[in-house]
Design a protein that fits this description.
Blueprint: H1 3-14, H2 21-26, H3 34-42, H4 47-54, H5 59-66, H6 85-93, H7 109-117, H8 129-137, H9 146-150, H10 156-163, H11 171-178, H12 183-192, H13 198-204, H14 211-219, H15 224-232, H16 247-254, H17 259-265, H18 274-278, H19 284-292, H20 299-306, H21 328-335, H22 340-347, H23 354-360, H24 366-375, H25 381-390, H26 395-398, H27 418-426, H28 442-449, H29 456-463, H30 469-474, H31 480-492
C-alpha cells in the first residue's frame, strides 16, 4: 500500500458521517498525522471524541479542537483555561481556514469571563493574557449584548471591560460604573464618558483627517462648533451615521447636494419633515430608501435595515446577532410589505414563522429568496438547491444549512460546474450507469465514491484506487469492522486486508 492510499483512507474515515466514536478516537493517535487534526477542526464530533480530544496530551490536537466551529462552543469551555496559551488563543480567535463561516457561534459567557479575568496566558508562557484577549476581539465570537450583560458583574475586570464599551450601556449602567466601588472601574468609566460629552469630544478631536477622526465624528456626541466645522470642511459623510447630531444638522444633510449623503440619512428614524422631501428626491435610490423610513421607528430597526439595504445578490457579509432585536410583529409587517427591501429584511430573520417563510420562498424578488435560503433554518430544500446552482458565491454557506438537500440533484449530473456535479454524484437516487466515477474532476469522483448506495464489492474496488479511495473510505455504507481493519493497517502496520491490496 502506498503512503498516498494510507493518507486518503485516514482522511476519508475522519469525515465519514457513519464512523462511530471508537473509530474516530483512533484518529487522535499521532500516527494518524494530519487526518486527526483535520477531523478535530473540521467536523462535528460525538461527545466521546470531544472528551478524548479535550484531555489529549498532544497540544496540536487540542489546538485543532479549539478552532472547531461545528461543535457547541460550550463543550469547548475547558480549553479556555488550557495549560497551553496557544490553545487558549486558538479558542479565542476561532477558525482561520480559507472558508470562514458567515455565521459564527458566539462563545458562551463563562468562556468569555474566563478569558477576561485570566491572570496569565497559560503555563507555557508563549503568549500573554492580553494577546489572547486581542484574538478574542478580532474573532466576532463576542455577542454584541455582552458588555451590557457584564456591567453589573461581581468581578471588577468584567465591569472594567463594560466601562470601555460606554455607548453599549444604558444610562443607569453608566451612572453605576461612574460610582463603582472599584477605583480602576471608576477611572475607566470617567475616561470613557467623554464620547457623550460634546465639549470633551471637541477638545479631544485631532486636527486633520484620520480614521480615528472619522470614527469620532460618526459615533460621538458633537458640539455645534464641531458640526459647523464639518460642514465648512465638507466632511459630513460621518455625520450621516451619527445618531447624536441635532435636528437642524440632520435637515441640512437631508438636503445635501451629494446624493450619497442623502442616501445615508434617508432611513434614519429621527428624520423630521425632510423625510417627505426625500421621497420626491431626483435620485431613485434616495427615493427608495425614503419610502422605507416610515417603517423604521427605532435605532434597532434602523440597524437591521441598514445591514440589508444597498447589498447585492451575492452579498456574503458576516451573519451576526444584534444586541437587541426588533419585535416579531415588526418583522411580520416587513414580510408583508410592498417594498422588496423590507421583505429582504424579514427573510434575513431566522425567527420568521413557517407560514411567512413559505410565502417568501415564492417571492418575485430574487434577493428575498436568496436571503431566506441563507438565513432561515426552515427555508425549503428546493429553494436551497436553486440558490446553490444559480449563485456560486453562497455555496460554502448553504452547505452548512441544516435543511440543505442531499437528493433531487440527479438532473444536474451534466452541469458544467464541478461543485454542482459533485452534489449530483452524491445523490443516493442517482442511477449508477451515469459515469460519475469517471468524471474528470477530483471532487466529483470523491463525492461519487461516497454515495451510500454503492455495493460492498464496488467500494472495495474504489478503496484501492487513488482517484476514489478517500470518498470510498468516507462512504457511510462502509462497515465499521472494515473501518477498523483499514485503521489497523494505517496506524499499526498490520497486513493490508487482501480486498484492498489490488492496486
Amino acid at each position: 500500500m502506498s503512503d498516498s492510499l494510507r493518507e486518503l483512507w485516514l482522511r476519508g474515515i475522519a469525515f465519514s458521517t457513519a464512523a462511530p466514536a471508537d473509530v474516530l478516537i483512533r484518529l487522535l493517535d499521532e500516527a494518524a498525522g494530519e487526518a486527526g487534526l483535520l477531523m478535530c477542526e473540521g467536523r462535528d464530533l460525538p461527545d466521546a471524541v470531544i472528551d478524548a480530544a479535550l484531555r489529549h496530551p498532544v497540544e496540536g490536537i487540542r489546538r485543532a479542537l479549539a478552532r472547531n466551529l461545528h461543535v457547541d462552543p460550550a463543550r469547548l469551555a475547558p480549553l479556555a483555561s488550557d495549560p497551553s496559551g496557544l490553545v487558549r488563543a486558538y479558542l479565542a480567535g476561532g477558525t482561520r481556514t480559507r472558508f470562514e463561516p458567515r455565521r459564527v457561534r458566539p462563545l458562551p459567557d463563562d468562556v468569555l469571563v474566563t478569558f477576561l479575568t485570566a491572570q496569565d496566558g497559560g503555563e507555557d508562557g508563549r503568549i500573554t493574557a492580553k494577546e489572547i484577549v486581542g484574538e478574542l476581539w478580532s474573532s466576532r465570537r463576542v455577542p454584541l449584548s455582552f458588555p451590557r450583560d457584564m456591567a453589573g458583574h461581581d468581578h471588577p475586570a468584567l465591569r472594567l471591560y463594560a466601562a470601555f464599551q460606554w455607548q453599549s450601556l444604558t444610562a443607569a449602567q453608566r451612572n453605576a460604573l461612574l460610582d463603582d466601588p472599584d477605583p480602576a472601574v471608576r477611572k475607566a468609566a470617567r475616561e470613557s464618558s467623554w464620547v457623550l460629552d460634546p465639549e470633551a469630544v471637541e477638545a479631544k478631536l485631532p486636527s486633520g483627517g484620520s480614521r480615528y477622526t472619522w470614527f469620532v465624528l460618526g459615533t460621538c456626541a458633537l458640539s455645534p462648533a464641531v458640526v459647523e466645522r464639518c460642514f465648512a470642511d465638507d466632511e459630513v459623510y460621518p455625520l450621516a451615521r451619527n445618531r447624536h447630531i441635532p435636528a437642524e444638522a440632520l435637515a441640512r444633510l437631508a438636503r445635501h447636494p451629494d446624493a450619497e449623503i442623502r442616501r445615508l440619512v434617508a432611513t434614519r428614524p429621527d428624520l423630521g419633515p425632510e423625510a417627505a422631501e426625500l421621497r420626491q428626491d431626483p435620485d431613485e435610490d434616495v427615493r427608495m430608501r425614503a419610502r422605507l423610513q416610515p417603517s423604521i421607528r427605532t435605532w434597532v430597526e434602523f440597524e437591521v435595515v441598514d445591514r440589508v439595504v444597498g447589498h447585492g445578490l451575492d452579498c456574503t457579509c458576516p451573519i451576526t446577532q444584534s444586541a437587541t432585536e426588533p419585535s416579531p410583529d415588526w418583522y411580520a409587517a416587513c414580510a408583508a410589505s410592498e417594498e422588496p427591501v423590507l421583505r429582504r429584511v424579514a427573510a434575513s430573520w431566522p425567527g420568521l414563522p413557517a407560514e411567512l417563510v413559505g410565502t417568501l420562498a415564492l417571492d418575485d424578488d430574487e434577493e428575498v429568496r436568496i436571503r431566506l435560503a441563507c438565513h432561515h433554518p426552515l427555508a425549503p430544500p428546493h429553494l436551497l438547491l436553486d440558490v446553490f446552482v444559480t449563485r456560486p458565491a453562497h455555496r460554502p454557506h448553504l452547505l452548512t444549512m441544516p435543511a440543505f438537500p442531499r437528493t433531487g440533484w440527479t438532473h444536474l449530473i451534466g452541469h458544467p460546474e464541478p461543485e454542482v456535479r459533485a452534489l449530483a454524484a452524491a445523490d443516493p437516487t442517482l442511477p449508477w450507469n451515469s459515469g460519475v466515477l469517471e468524471d474528470p474532476d477530483d471532487e466529483v469522483r470523491r463525492a461519487a465514491a461516497a454515495n451510500p448506495t454503492l455495493t460492498p464489492e464496488t467500494l472495495e474496488t474504489l478503496l484501492a484506487d487513488l482517484r476514489t479511495a478517500e470518498g470510498a473510505a468516507a462512504n457511510p455504507s462502509l462497515p465499521v469492522p472494515r473501518m477498523h481493519a483499514l485503521l489497523d493497517h494505517c496506524l499499526n502496520g498490520t497486513a493490508t486486508p487482501p480486498t484492498a491490496a489490488r492496486r
